[in-house]
């Protein structure tokens, strides 16, 4: 029996105004109600829409998450959002350490670890992102990069119940390119092995490890069929109901 229920998560990034965000979430919630798939589904709208989307899908099986949180609970941090604030709006998850935040905002793995700890303290599941750049892949450093990001980003107290790992090769995000299936399998197996060392074998066996980076209906089935791929973190294709739903159906 499959021990890990797949998680199909949509990262809307900086897309969506009130009307279209609500319509997208409602359409997904309706599909989930009509024909529940054998996966968990999550959408992560921009912070401005978390409240509205959470209210729109309340009572449905569609979970809602944030895309980032601050490491502190409150304070003088203009423009930032605390994990507890996302929780207050009805979020159950938050993405931390996305490569766009690591690149655009200079977030380090130490920052990511503090954010994940804040998410846990607020009662949120932290989706911790990691992945190599193209130069790192070309230089043969993929596994070393993933290993150090994993070691440095995982907080004390992490468990399969409060943490999900997302492997997102930076060069595959929004480019239409993906690693080969063998390359994805190798990285996911490595992450599972790292998790076994950090959390113990049983916990590692329950930990969900998502793949992200140009996942779409045409390649989802083969990616999601890999033994250590337990779902997807989907950007562009999560903005279209039919595409996101098709991906969920192929898990
Ligand atoms: O960054 C991603 C999800 O967090 C992946 O984005 P794309 O699916 O658009 O490549």
What would you note in describing this structure?
The radius of gyration is 17 Å and the shape is globular. By secondary structure, the protein is of the alpha/beta class. The protein has an 8-stranded parallel beta barrel with strand order 1-2-3-4-5-6-7-8, surrounded by 8 helices. The protein has a domain at 86-251: TIM Barrel. Helix 5 packs across helix 7. It has helices at residues 18-34, 47-56, 83-89, 99-104, 109-121, 134-138, 142-153, 181-199, 201-206, 217-224, 241-249; strands at 7-11, 40-44, 62-66, 93-96, 125-130, 163-167, 208-212, 231-234. The longest helix has 19 residues, at 181-199.
C-alpha Rg, in Å? 17 Å
**The CATH H-level homologous superfamily of one domain:** Aldolase class I
Number of strands: 8
Overall residue-averaged pLDDT value: 97
Widest beta sheet: strand line-up: 1-2-3-4-5-6-7-8
Silhouette: globular
Number of helical elements: 11
Order of helices and strands: EHEHEHEHHEHHEHHEHEH
Strand content: 15-25%
Instruction: Name the CATH architecture of one domain.
Output: Alpha-Beta Barrel
Uncertain stretches: none
What's the CATH topology label of one domain? TIM Barrel
Name of the top-level CATH class of one domain: Alpha Beta
Terminal Cα span: 15 Å
Helix content: 40-55%
The small-molecule ligands in this entry are: 1,3-dihydroxyacetonephosphate
* Biggest sheet statistics: 8 strands, parallel, barrel
Structural class: alpha/beta
Catalytic activity: L-erythrulose 1-phosphate = D-erythrulose 4-phosphate; D-glyceraldehyde 3-phosphate = dihydroxyacetone phosphate
Pathway: Carbohydrate degradation; glycolysis; D-glyceraldehyde 3-phosphate from glycerone phosphate: step 1/1; Carbohydrate biosynthesis; gluconeogenesis; Carbohydrate metabolism; erythritol degradation
Keywords: Cytoplasm, Gluconeogenesis, Glycolysis, Isomerase
InterPro entries: Aldolase_TIM, TIM_sf, TrioseP_Isoase_bac/euk, Triosephosphate_isomerase, Triosephosphate_isomerase_AS
């Amino acid at each position: 029996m499959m021990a890990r229920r797949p998680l199909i998560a949509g990262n809307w990034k900086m897309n969506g105004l009130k009307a279209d965000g609500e319509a997208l979430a409602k359409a997904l919630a309706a599909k989930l109600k009509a024909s529940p798939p054998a996966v968990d589904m999550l959408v992560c709208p921009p912070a401005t829409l978390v409240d509205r989307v959470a209210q729109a899908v309340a009572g449905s099986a569609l979970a809602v998450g944030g895309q980032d949180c601050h490491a502190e609970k409150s304070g003088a941090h203009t423009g930032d959002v605390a994990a507890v604030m996302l929780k207050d709006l009805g979020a159950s998850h938050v993405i931390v350490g996305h490569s766009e935040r690591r690149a655009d905002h200079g977030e380090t793995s130490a920052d990511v670890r503090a954010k994940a700890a804040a998410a846990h303290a607020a009662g949120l599941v932290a989706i911790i992102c990691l992945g190599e750049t193209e130069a790192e892949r070309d230089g043969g450093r993929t596994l070393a990069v993933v290993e150090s990001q994993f070691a440095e980003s995982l907080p004390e107290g992490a468990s399969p119940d409060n943490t999900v790992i997302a492997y997102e090769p930076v060069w595959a995000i929004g480019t239409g390119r993906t690693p080969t299936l063998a390359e994805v399998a190798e990285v996911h197996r490595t992450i599972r092995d790292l998790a076994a060392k950090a959390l113990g074998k049983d916990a590692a066996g329950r930990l969900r490890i998502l793949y992200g980076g140009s996942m779409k209906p045409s390649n989802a089935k083969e990616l999601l069929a890999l033994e250590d791929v337990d779902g997807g973190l989907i950007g562009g294709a999560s903005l279209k109901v039919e595409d996101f739903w098709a991906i969920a159906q192929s898990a």
